[in-house]
Design brief:
Strand content: 5-15%
CATH topology of one domain: Rossmann fold
GO cellular component, one term: cytosol
Strand order of the largest sheet: 3-4-2-5-6-1-7
Protein name: DEAD/DEAH box helicase
Structural class: alpha/beta
Distance between the termini: 46 Å
Oligomer: single chain
Radius of gyration: 28 Å
CATH class of one domain: Alpha Beta
Keywords: ATP-binding, Helicase, Hydrolase, Nucleotide-binding
Family: Belongs to the DEAD box helicase family.
GO molecular function, one term: nucleic acid binding
CATH architecture of one domain: 3-Layer(aba) Sandwich
Length: 644
Amino acid sequence: MPFPATHPLLAEALDARGYADPTPVQAAVLAPGNEGRDLLVSAQTGSGKTVAFGLALASTLIGASPVLVPAMAPRALVVAPTRELALQVARELTWLYERTGARIVTCVGGMDPRRERRALEAGADIVVGTPGRLRDHIERRALDLSELACAVLDEADEMLDLGFREDLTFILESAPAERRTLLFSATIPPQIAGLARDHQRDAVRIDTIARNAPHADIAYQAIRVSPREIELAVVNVLRRVEARAAIVFCATREQVRHLHANLVERGFAAVALSGELSQAERSNALQSLRDGRARVCVATDVAARGIDLAHLDLVIHADLPNDREALLHRSGRTGRAGRKGICVLVVPVNRRRKAEALIQGARIDVVWSGPPTIEEIRAEDEARFLADPLIVEEAGEDERETARRLLETRSPEEVAAALVRLWRARLPAPEDVTDPGERPVRRGRDERELERARDKGPFEGRGRDAREPREPREARERVPMAWFTLSVGRQQNADPKWLLPLICRIGGIDRGVVGPIRIFPQETRFGIAVDAADAFAKSALGGNDENVTIARAEGAPGPRQDVDGDGPRRGGFGKGGFAGKGGFAGKGGFAGKSGGGFGKGGFGKPAPRGKATGGKGTGGNDGFRKAGPGGGKPFQAKARHAEG
């Protein structure tokens, strides 16, 4: 039986969960001589510390008794900085103590306090909560700490950073002085040492962080990009690394909204986390990540605190963190509990020196490269396709019968090509991103000011619309074009910003062969280079999963009545996709998932037609629309602010 040093009931729970050997922090808290002692523990997120302090509590709660004896008041209290972390801790302790019959109650901000009060009145052995809500229950005399035997402060450094010092002091002073106190923190700065000195008695110091090799299970990569192509690089990283779950960090709420909307437009099943979300929206977003309906989370540092996803394979820094601690804390969300992870820093060439300073300060090994190319992504796609169970598993008899009928009317090459098209149709199109080279090129002042003017916008010109200058429209329109129609127009809030990815995805083409996009009230007309038109028509005219219809047009369109697309531009999505649906009718999600992230239009409701919104819907309620025939007030630039 694993963990022989712990109580038999907990050992059975660990064995059922497949725990064979303790992690370093778990072994340390169970070491001889630490039973019943106050502990000051340095442990990184993902090191198994929740199970560690759960095991440490057993000697106080159960002792040598064969079962846990119910108490009149809580015997253990766990304080965590965020509601997400508190709920995660409660889930871990629930399965660990399931066989003991322990009653575990959560008290966190954003939940119904009356329900929590009723649960406390019904009896609790272990209470898990956030500082503010716990203090509120204590002051209202709903939470009685008179019999508390052990208090645990989880991620104490985060709680102090968030300004909970006064609440923590109040909570600890409300408990008996002879209680046991376990303090867990990723770092032990002076304020944590002071907290331990004030509220612990002869604490045992445990340090399980390897100072010379932080995050040994994380492969670090740094990708140099042009400042105008950060978003495109993020798209290609997500396409190259097909992670079960990924998190992309941005500096501000506005950048989160902008990047999230662009990812959803391109077909990724993505959710956004920022401080403006309600608790219900936040919970829905996290649940969609846990159950696989969404695979990408775009978040700020503050909004992501306390998130614990078991299968987070990829972390992307779309904005560089402010310091080495933030870099390590962000990155440490992957590569946990012995699993491997990938961390990618997207480094604009004008911020390379800052990136190098962060890397040096964090003492991590980083591989530098340019952004993933379309060819590299296609090669990865092909390898994944050939290894897919769809290909390698043996077909059933009914499937073989269908295959035989297909081969009676189609050649093997045609059938195989159709299979490849079906595979590619569910994947977002990779972007053509340039490698700016090893070192930034010094430019004159006029050129830098021109770039800044061109880059203004919610993500500082990081979208496709702020790329290098293109050849004049007249020159592009001289390229022979075959014209097609699309069954959405201005009245459905059509916009080249999401029309271009849609056209490329349906037709299986790159954006380079798409010509002008002209939006009319009830339809959109667009050109495809003649040499690519037949292949496009073969893919696009036979039906699709996007709830739109594409047909050949009779000649070029008449005088332009709306903006000439020529590729995405800065502008909004109004009601989210078209006809008010999230994503593209909930189809075309990343790796076969719902394009809206939640399958039902994501967060929130669509805004009324004709209004711009910075709302929370995954279907595109986040865009900033320009004034024009489609309605909406012009976007007014505001000073950028970091979320706090």
